[in-house]
Every structure is written in C-alpha cells, then in structure tokens.
Design goal:
The chain starts with 18 loop residues before the first helix and ends in an 8-residue tail after the last helix. The chain has a two-stranded antiparallel sheet with strand order 1-2. The protein has one domain. The longest helix has 27 residues. The chain has 15 helices and 2 strands. The protein is globular, with a radius of gyration of 21 Å. By secondary structure, it is mainly α. It is 49% helix and 1% strand.
Amino acid sequence: MVVLAGNLATATSRPGRRSAPDVSTRLTLGFIIDPLGNRRRVAWTNVAVLGLLLPGASLWAIYRIFTTPTGPGLWALTAGLYLFTLFGVTLGNHRYWTHRGYRVRLPLQIVLAVASAMSVEGSIEQWVLTHRAHHRWADVVGWDPHSPYEYSAWRGYQGLLWAQGVWLMFHGNPALQLTVHHDLAEDRVVQVQQKAFGAIAAGQYVLLLAFWPVFGWNAVLIAGALRTAALMTSTGMVNSVCHKWGRRATDSVGQEYRRDDSRNNVVVAVLAGGEGNHSWHHADPPCPRHGRRIDLDAEAVARGIRPAGGWRPDATWRLIQLLQKIGLIFEVRQPKRSVHFPETLCVPNPSLQVTQEEWRPRP
C-alpha cells in the first residue's frame, strides 16, 4: 500500500562496458534488473529519504529508547500520530479516494489529506493511481507495481523484500501509463494536497520540535521517524505478507478467491487497521468493510462446508461506522451477506499459474 511511483527505463547494452552493470546489479541485490531483463531507473530521492535518512533516524531512535528516559507521554504522542497517519492511509487514500466506498464531508477530507501526507507514503494522487494499477494487474509479473512474485530468488524472499518496500527505490513501469483519473483531477482537496505534500511531510518533523522542552530529540526521532518507519512497515506488509501467508476469501458456496494470491492475515490486520483482510478486499474492492463474514447457502451447508472462522479485526471499518453516526461520512456501501464469486475470480491469472508453485500445471 505504500506508494511513491515513477517510470522505468529499458536496458541497453554497450560493448566494452560490462563491468558497470555487474557492479550496479550486485549493489542493488539484483533489483535493478526487472524480470524481463530491463534495467530499472533508480528513484534517487526515495533512496535518500526512505532508504537512508528514515532508516538511519529510526535506528538512532531505537538506540535512544534504551539509553534515554521515555515515558507515557512520549508513547501516547507516538501512538496517537501512528493512528492518525494510519487512518489517513486506510480511511482516506484507500477506502475513500481509491475505491469510493463512501462519501466524506469536506472538513474530514481536509483532515484525511493532512494525515495522508504525514504518512510520507506519497501524495493521494500517487497513492491512488498506483493502488488502482495493483488491482488491475494484481500478481502479474512485470505489471503489478509491488507483487512478491516479481522475483523468485532466495526461496521467494527476494520477492517479499521487493513488495515490502524495495519497489519504492525504483521508478515504475512506463507501460502502465498512470494517467490521472478524472475523479482525482477534479478533486480540489487531492490537487491541493498534491502541491503541498512535501511541505506537510517534512513540516511535521519541524512541528514536533515544539515538544523539545518535554521530550528532547525523542519527539522527532521516536514520535516522528520511528513512527513513520513503523507505519510504512505495517502497510508494506499488506503488499508482501498478505500476498503469501493467510487464508483466502471464500464465498457463500465455499469457492476460494484465486484471481490473485491475496490473503487474509490477522497479524497484519491488527497492525494496519484492518487492511490485512486483504483477500476479501481484492474479492470486493469497493466494499469498505474488509474484515467481513458471509452466510453460506443451504446447498453448501448440506455438502458439509463450514463457515470460515477466525478473528477479523478491522479498526478502519469501526471508525467508518462511528464517523457515519456523527454525519462526517455518508452513503456507505454495505457489505453483502450472500456473495457468489464469478468463475473469473476463482481461477488464477496466467502469470500466477507460472510463478505460484501451488497453481503450476502438473506434468
């Protein structure tokens, strides 16, 4: 779910200059070459900010947790900012601006736009366009912006690392042609936030200096950098972990959703405000409730099929219900209790039939 996207350049080879590509390939652990053999273009700003500055500040923050005084006030500030920015992504970027699962009053739109920028996951426009591309090409190698099946080395863990966040260090596939959709181009809040994203994202750390008299550098490092890194880790797990481990959504006759390899993972659902109920989200993207349950048909019960069990936490849906009661959210799409997947959602896409070992044709 983390988004900062761009373009990809096609590789060209030049006689007599073989050493440079070899060095760059080793330095990037092979990620600079895509599965089709093309050379990716490095997103140097992201490398500097997300690959060096943020991890460095986060490590310093972890060191200070064990070497400097912390207290309930600092942790309350950190948790509050984590939840505020998390819901900017889940309630704002994802379930509202991407999938339009409900309508939102203007004051709340402005708050969500600020929270979204403070997450440092890219502007709303960038986030939405990349996520819509993910749904269109989910787990299709070379097209999905962040599928763990993009790379198969290291027993599949290279792909997991790619999906977790390495993809942010490179510009995206230009063939995706991520043109701005009309609903985003005509949304004034989205367009203003697009221009103000950098100022808000960086400015939050300056504002945290207001807590200097109480918390010192810990306000910026722990409540700022470490909190941002924790959020990006949690939402990144939706792209990586939730396309590898967990249960698949099943409909009212017991059919599994298999168009892509999205999964429902309870640990990620807790950390990411319900986003870990990922298979259900892919099965029904416009539905704003991800942690959902359905009723089985009588025929399915007669065949001995049991309802899918397990805990399905969805803090974002609970917040939607609360905001709906006070009138800040309205026209909410309600989840259906009876769901029947069409055949196209029960068959893995051709790319997965090659990359996903479970679904490879047997000789």
